[in-house]
Amino acid sequence: AEEVVDPEELGLVHVLVQVGRELARRGEVVAERLLDDHTGGGGQCAGGGKAGDDGREQRRRDLVKVVHKLAEEGRVGIRHARTESRDRLKKMDKVSEDDVKHGEKELQKLHDEFVHRIDETLKVKEAEILEV
Questions:
Q1: CA distances from 23 to 32, 44, 102 (A)
Q2: CB under 8 Å to 95, separation ≥6 — which residues?
Q3: ∠118-89-82 over CA atoms, to 5°?
Q4: Inter-residue contact 27 to 74 (CB < 8 Å)
Q5: pTM value surpassing 0.85
């Protein structure tokens, strides 16, 4: 377990580094789930088969729904990390208001980057699943 350090002892830059690591961890977990879940870990869709097979077609559509759900869970996790981090920044006593605003902008950049990664992974996985 990683030791939690009081943000006021670290300073703004270190808080942002911690937040970036947490967002990266959450983003990697979601991306890994998107790539491995329901594929058997081998990269091929578990429901792949003949184009005319309605049962397999339905299975692929169901898998896409699951992948979309996992991606949304990842986005929610990243939003929660951003909110928690923003709250920690606002509670810091020894940081100027300008530094807090700068920190919030950096948090938003990190948030956007990791949400984008999830979205890109989702697109790739969806195309892979639907490929006949």
A1: 14, 28, 18
A2: 8, 11, 12, 89, 103
A3: 15
A4: yes
A5: no
